[in-house]
Design goal:
alpha+beta, 2 domains, seven-stranded mixed beta sheet, Methane Monooxygenase Hydroxylase, Chain G, domain 1
Length: 322
């Protein structure tokens, strides 16, 4: 699907499809936003190259799972980032690569699936008159995407607090499995947000001159976008560390419980070892046993047994094993 917004020099805005491209090219003072959704790779590549997009930029857009990046070419600045198509409460999510080509007179957005950020600004672009500032519009689109990530991540925080309380009050294997799953998902999000933070940092520190000269306040927009990306990265890192700490805490508790169990079994084995020896000696069926016909032999054996048990119990209590 190709949809187009065209703003002429007199401020008139037109919406349509690819047919507006020729009209944009023939009017020097006009601005265009061309949105390409789910186009065939061949048709997408041909159209992007015909609009002056650099072949290396086009290849990066069409490369499967290309990491987020930004790069400035002669006619445009490429912003390649990950937008979300679904983000669930358990941190499972579906992402898609969104490419934004910001030029002097237009913005080209490329994505395979519907994008909430692009749809939002497609219907609200006239409120801030963003057509005359393609770079500013690109920042706004990415801000909306990052804002979606941030909202979902903040919704996860109360649930993480509940898991932390549950792990402290009643640790269990089920909570452990949940934490491991969350840690794995947070690791993936952390990698994406780290890419985004570096992407916006590069734009902020090396803003292309064509974007600086636009009518929008690109510096403030980039600073706000960087702050959001930095907060996303820091929040994800903090949640990742909390999950890791809870997992290590559970393992420590399990190890301590196992040690206490082994310690108790060791005490029992140590006490029963001598008793087994005594019973084994006096349970032998030899006639030549001095105590065999002794009147007090039975009581003597029990006395030895009780003495051994009392001695070991006292010893282990002093060592605080009992």
């Amino acid at each position: 699907m190709i949809r187009t917004r065209l703003q002429l020099a007199d401020g008139q805005q037109l919406t349509g499809g690819a047919e507006l491209i020729s009209q944009w090219q023939s009017h020097a003072n006009s601005f265009i936003w061309l949105d390409m959704e789910g186009e065939a790779p061949g048709d997408e590549k041909h159209l992007l190259k015909s609009l002056g997009c650099h072949p290396l930029a086009v290849d990066a857009v069409q490369r499967f799972r290309h990491p987020p990046k930004t790069e400035t070419f002669a006619q445009h600045t490429l912003i390649l980032y990950r937008g979300i198509t679904a983000f669930n409460d358990d941190l499972t999510n579906k992402q898609q690569t969104i490419a934004l080509f910001a030029g002097e007179r237009g913005l080209i957005s490329v994505h395979a699936l519907p994008s909430a950020a692009i749809d939002h600004w497609w219907h609200h672009i006239e409120e801030e008159n963003l057509m005359r500032s393609p770079g500013f519009l690109a920042c706004r689109i990415m801000q909306h995407s990052v804002g979606q990530y941030l909202d979902k991540l903040l919704e996860f925080e109360p649930y993480l607090n509940e898991l932390e309380d549950s792990m402290q009050d009643n640790p269990s294997d089920e909570v452990m499995k949940t934490l491991i799953a969350y840690k794995s998902r947070l690791r993936k999000l952390k990698r994406i947000f780290s890419y985004h933070e570096r992407l916006v940092f590069n734009l902020l520190k090396h803003t292309p001159i064509k974007l600086v000269e636009e009518e929008g306040e690109i510096d403030h927009a980039l600073q706000d976008l960087y702050d959001r990306c930095e907060r996303l990265n820091s929040l994800t890192t903090m949640y990742f560390d909390i999950c890791g700490d809870l997992i290590e805490g559970y393992l420590s508790i399990s190890s301590h419980t196992l040690n206490k169990t082994l310690q108790f079994l060791t005490v029992i084995t140590t006490i029963l070892g001598p008793l087994t020896f005594i019973v084994g000696v006096y349970g032998m069926n030899f006639d030549n046993i001095p105590e065999l016909h002794w009147h007090y032999g039975y009581y003597f054996a029990w006395g030895i047994i009780l003495l051994v048990v009392t001695g070991f119990v006292g010893y282990f209590k002093r060592r605080r094993w009992l």
